[in-house]
Every structure is written in structure tokens, then in C-alpha cells.
């Protein structure tokens, strides 16, 4: 079979494989289009925190409904990842790559017409399902096309777009808060980038690794030759007969990987999503501006999260996955601990502590997507990413739902201490369980041998 794949190569011709290929325009285009999903996730989650500033008083919403609506999209992500990850492994990446965004467009438009909290909760839940479906689809596609030397940066870079989306949402919300019924336009606005992204994604082909895993080598080779060069070959892939069943995720070495990824991912997103969903309210408690000004500060914190992601992307292939993850957790925990210890400190110190947390959170954030895509084989990659995404979002949903209660009943300092403890737990678990996959071929990183 291997000789058949390479029959068109001869003599001194250099054959390109998926892992050895040079970065080209297709890889960049794929990464850009795939980043639309995390952009929308960051935008959708962040815009609701600002919209609730108008919706709450208008609907006389209590903390229960505020928490439910803030957490609804996260619950939806759990459902979407758990259901559509395995479906993506079964029917392929390409089809699901556009369907999920069409669902986001429809639900975003319907949000404009909601009349009560229950309707908004349902639509936010459905949007979350679509976002959760996109995580395993988009990240699997990028991982399965990316050259080894660029894999971490291309996959991790997708997560950086989450913060771009959140930053854009903060500034959109800042301006629309001055508009009557501005919250309707905030929630509708996510349909615009979703429409542009779904149009762009129609040009992306199916994953050659997935095609090969299904024994469709001729199609896989055709895709490779169209995307990485006419001398492309599948020689670096394991034989298609080597299968990893879905049940493998629930036992042995792969179960250990599921546990590790789920814990560190949860420890990353619980404090992060709580801050995003209720950022303006939290900043006001720290006296970092009041009213609409706090939303501008919220956007600047989002910018620091983005800077942290970029810094981590530059370091992850130099220092390795483990140190970027462990130290990222440890130092971001210190920033949160200071916020709990000194909530009345000088404003510049509060701002600095937020910046420290946001910048060093970049390491764990980019590895949320690098690790699960590297540590599982093609046959179950989307399923594993969906499973780990879903588990992490259960914790994030609980944290987001509990944040307004914690702020009201435990106080600001206790809430920050809890967030710091969660980040510290991430550092401890990572120190014991995180593997190093730097400079390792994808099929080797994903195997247990």
C-alpha cells in the first residue's frame, strides 16, 4: 500500500508528507477560516455580559436568571461537543464545518425578537450547542493538515482568536449601550461574522487523515496534492487497518489523557469564563470605573488575554508544552490571589494584577486545543476534543452560574481566592500529568506506545 501511494515519485524528487510539508497559503487560509469558531465563541460569551446590563433592569431579572443566561451557552457547548464530536469522527469534518455556523446565524437573528428570559435562555443554549460542535471540527481539521513544525502555533492560534472575539464584543457593547434597546443589536450582531465565515469555509476540503482512516487513500492523496504539492504522499501515516475504537477513551492510557485534559481545561476556563460573563460588574466592584467606562476597561483586559496568547504561541515550541502550561497556571494564580488579598489596593496595582492573570493565562489557554488534538488518534480525535470540551464546560457553566451568587454572598475577596485556588490546582495537576509533545510527529504523539 505504501509503495502505491508513492508510485509517482522518483529519483531526487523530494516527497512532502503532512508532518514534513512546508507552511503554505492553504495552511494559513485553513487556520484563518477555522479561527472563526473561537472568534464567535469569545464574541458570543462576552457580549451577553454587557447585554445583561440593559436586559437585567428592563426585565427585572434576578441573580438566578442572570446566572442561567450567563451559563446557558456553556451548557450548550457541553452538549454540542459531546454529541457532534463523535458524529464528526463518523461522517467527516467538512460537512459539519459549515452546518454549525448556519445554526449560529439563525439563532443570533432570533435573539433580536426574544421577549423574556426563558426565550433568551433557550436560544443561548442552542448557540452554545453549535459552538460546541465547532470546537472538535475546526481544531481537528487544522491539526490534521498542519505541518509538525507549525502544528502548535496553528492550533493554539485558534484559541487566540477567542480573545479577539471577546475584545471586539467589549467595544461593540461599549458603543451599543448608549443605544435604546441596544442589547438586541448586540445579540443580533454575531450573525454578521458567522455569515462571512460560513461563506469562506465552503472552499476547505475534507481532512486527508480522516479519509485515510476510512481507507479512502485515493481521495486523501488528491486532497494532499491540491493543498501541499504535487509530490505529496501519505507515507507518514499509519496503516488504515490500525483502528482506535471509541471505547478506548474510557480505559487505560487514553482515559488518563482524558482526565488530565479535562482537569487542566476546566481549571483554565472556570475563572476565565466567570470574568468574561460578569466582567463589567466585577470591575465596578474593584472601583475600576463605573457604568459604561467599566466596559472599556473590560475590553482592555481582553486585549491582555490576547497578548498572553500570542506570547505563549511564540514560546510553546521553544520551551515546550509542559513549562508553558505549568508556569502559566502558577503565575496567573498569583495574580488572582493578589486581587483577593488586596481588593482595595491602588487602581494601578489592581490593573496590574488583572494584567498578570490575563497574560499568563495564555499558556493554559492555547494548550486547551493543542494537547487534546495531539494526544488522540484520527479515528477518535474529534470525539476526544468534544468530550474534553464538554467536561470543561460543565465546570465553566457551574462557575459562571455561581459567580453572581458568590459575589453577592461571599464577597469579592473570597470569589477571587476561589478563582486563584482553581488555577493553582491546574498547575499541580499539570506538573504530575502533562506530557511533552514538542517536535513529535502527530501519529506518534497520539499513540500510547
UniProtKB/TrEMBL annotation:
<dbReference type="InterPro" id="IPR005829">
    <property type="entry name" value="Sugar_transporter_CS"/>
</dbReference>
<dbReference type="InterPro" id="IPR036259">
    <property type="entry name" value="MFS_trans_sf"/>
</dbReference>
<comment type="similarity">
    <text>Belongs to the major facilitator superfamily. Sugar transporter (TC 2.A.1.1) family.</text>
</comment>
<keyword id="KW-0472">Membrane</keyword>
<feature type="transmembrane region" description="Helical">
    <location>
        <begin position="121"/>
        <end position="142"/>
    </location>
</feature>
<feature type="transmembrane region" description="Helical">
    <location>
        <begin position="323"/>
        <end position="341"/>
    </location>
</feature>
<feature type="transmembrane region" description="Helical">
    <location>
        <begin position="154"/>
        <end position="177"/>
    </location>
</feature>
<feature type="transmembrane region" description="Helical">
    <location>
        <begin position="97"/>
        <end position="115"/>
    </location>
</feature>
<feature type="transmembrane region" description="Helical">
    <location>
        <begin position="183"/>
        <end position="204"/>
    </location>
</feature>
<feature type="transmembrane region" description="Helical">
    <location>
        <begin position="414"/>
        <end position="434"/>
    </location>
</feature>
<dbReference type="InterPro" id="IPR020846">
    <property type="entry name" value="MFS_dom"/>
</dbReference>
<feature type="domain" description="Major facilitator superfamily (MFS) profile">
    <location>
        <begin position="30"/>
        <end position="438"/>
    </location>
</feature>
<dbReference type="InterPro" id="IPR005828">
    <property type="entry name" value="MFS_sugar_transport-like"/>
</dbReference>
<dbReference type="GO" id="GO:0005886">
    <property type="term" value="C:plasma membrane"/>
</dbReference>
<feature type="transmembrane region" description="Helical">
    <location>
        <begin position="64"/>
        <end position="85"/>
    </location>
</feature>
<protein>
    <submittedName>
        <fullName>MFS transporter</fullName>
    </submittedName>
</protein>
<feature type="transmembrane region" description="Helical">
    <location>
        <begin position="382"/>
        <end position="402"/>
    </location>
</feature>
<dbReference type="InterPro" id="IPR050360">
    <property type="entry name" value="MFS_Sugar_Transporters"/>
</dbReference>
<feature type="transmembrane region" description="Helical">
    <location>
        <begin position="30"/>
        <end position="52"/>
    </location>
</feature>
<feature type="transmembrane region" description="Helical">
    <location>
        <begin position="258"/>
        <end position="278"/>
    </location>
</feature>
<feature type="transmembrane region" description="Helical">
    <location>
        <begin position="298"/>
        <end position="316"/>
    </location>
</feature>
<feature type="transmembrane region" description="Helical">
    <location>
        <begin position="347"/>
        <end position="370"/>
    </location>
</feature>
<dbReference type="GO" id="GO:0005351">
    <property type="term" value="F:carbohydrate:proton symporter activity"/>
</dbReference>
<keyword id="KW-1133">Transmembrane helix</keyword>
<keyword id="KW-0812">Transmembrane</keyword>
<dbReference type="Pfam" id="PF00083">
    <property type="entry name" value="Sugar_tr"/>
</dbReference>
